[in-house]
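Posting for a labmate who doesn't have an account.
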Amino acid sequence: MNGEDIFSIKRQTQRDDSNAFGTRMGENYDTGFGALNEKFKQMYAVESGNLYE
């Protein structure tokens, strides 16, 4: 096994983790991450005093 194999396995593992997280959050990774991102935007808006339209 060379270094490239280790990195490609690590990338695949991270992708699997991200997809599993996204699936728990919503129908798929995109909607799950999008919903989470909206929550952070709302939290930031409250803290900074900016209102997102």
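Reply:
Got it, the structure tokens are right above this. The radius of gyration is 16 Å.
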